[in-house]
Amino acid sequence: xxxIVGLFAKSSDVEEHLGEHLAAMLVQMSSRGPDSAGVAxxxxxxxxxxxxxxxxxxxxxxxxxxxxxGLRDAFGGCDEPSIRASHAVLVAEADAAEAEAWMRxxxxxxxxxxxxxxxxxxxxxxxxxxxxAAFHLEDFxxxxxxxxxxxxxxxxxxxxxxxxxxxxxxxxxxxxGSLSNxxxxxxxxxxxxxxFQTENDTEVAAGxxxxxxxxxxxxxxxxxxxxSDLDGxxxxxxxxxxxxxxLRDPIACKPAVLAETDDWVAMSSEWRSIxxxxxxxxxxxxxxxxxxxxxxxKAKV
Amino acid sequence: MVVASTETAELEVVDLxxxxxxxxxxxxxxxxxxxxxxxxxxxxxxxxxxxxxCGIDAELxxxxxxxxxxxxxxxxxxxxxxxxxxxxxxxxxxxxxxxVIVDGNVSQSAGATGRGGLLVVRGDASSRCGISMKxxxxxxxxxxxxxxxxxxxxxxxxxxxxxxxxxxxxIYEARLYVRGAVAGLGADCIEKEMRDEHVAQVAGLLEAAxxxxxxxEFRRYGSARQLYNFKIDNAGAY
Lengths: 301, 238
Fold this sequence. Notes:
The complex is a heterodimer. Chain A is of the alpha+beta class. Chain A folds into two domains: 2-40 and 125-300, Glutamine Phosphoribosylpyrophosphate, subunit 1, domain 1, CATH 3.60.20.10; 45-117, Alpha-Beta Plaits. Chain A is 29% helix and 31% strand. Chain A is built from nine helices and 16 strands. In chain A, helix 6 (182-191) runs parallel beside helix 7. The longest helix of chain A is centred in the last third of the chain and has 14 residues, at 201-214. Chain A starts with a strand and ends with a strand. Chain B has two helices and eleven strands, in the order E-H-E-E-E-E-E-E-E-E-E-H-E. The longest helix of chain B has 14 residues, at 196-209. At the A-B interface, helix 9 of A face loops of B.
């Protein structure tokens, strides 16, 4: 069991209070996932020609200024790090993929949680309420966000095993369920050059999506591929630079509810998380069909 | 707990913003066996909470104003529970008797294992509606999702709209009535003749559910009885 939440702002008021709403939704999912919690927030686009990395350090005394200096030496510009608990966001004058590659080879001790122009991923073990407080979720303004509360079944409770998982630049995945063919699939994807850092099943789904997208599939095509290539139970929510997508496996054992008002689109494992949003009682609410890809994007709303 | 002085002093209003689910359910349980107290309840701000108004054993009328979470009205005897909203997984699970009426849509496994009583869903029901039903009657005003009436044993499932794939898979003796299209029948489920007694049964259930519909438009599905009887010819398969 895990909890998933997603919120897409359609009004500036919801954008301004995105983090506050996200935190409230996440806390409602504590009983579904008390082990760990995480969020992906889409906010503050990096300037043109710059990109944004969210980094995690297991060292509570990490000297983030040195990381900034390293990026400055390598690429020219890098803003002061924005530090939240064990994570820091660095905005550098670099292509996102190059900055990520530099980080992996020069600072292998740090974990790149996300890379792109707008995405920031934060995740940590512990109760959702403690996570929301430690990372000051209520401060976040942004266009959309996904969140996850984890009850681990397939692998250890660690920061790295928490969700969301990055699936490429500005992309992320959260998952409720469990996959049964992840070991074989991981080996196949490794041969395709996809890197894995944990034994986690969801990381394999994230790697699968990254591989399909790299090979030229659209997000919808990549998600539809999950229906034939992934064996197991899942409700997935995928965050993109412009919105998010939702997919349930064809058996649809894992719950999901979607709701929409003039001000927001929300998805969650349960209505409890959506009930905390303004105007929820009057929202149009429905259950996503099994095996159908749902997508919301800024341009389409 | 607030006792409202409305048109009848017997109505108790419970606001879940200020009262816990445990307190609410305990209050309802305490009225079992004809114990003195109000017979009508109005529940405010359910906000998707789980296990509301379940385990009741008394002739109570409970109205819930909003969407409810998992297992609402489960295991109840005698009571009437109305949900003015949508319901999540397992509404009226293992219902023993009484009624459960939902104005909106319901999620999966509605009426699961129900042994008696009537569940009415005015909107749509998701997958596995009536899974393993054991005597409950279920009337759905809209459509039902895949694997509905899976291993259904007895009772009736009346669907005014369409049914999803694998309807009645591994069914025993429940009767399934569907007015619209059936995406596919599950193992050992077949269409059966709709005789007068069946039209009358559907008419009676629609009336009891206060759902409009012409009973003559429904088709009947049930067990071919090939799967659940042991056959000596199949001994090698075990």
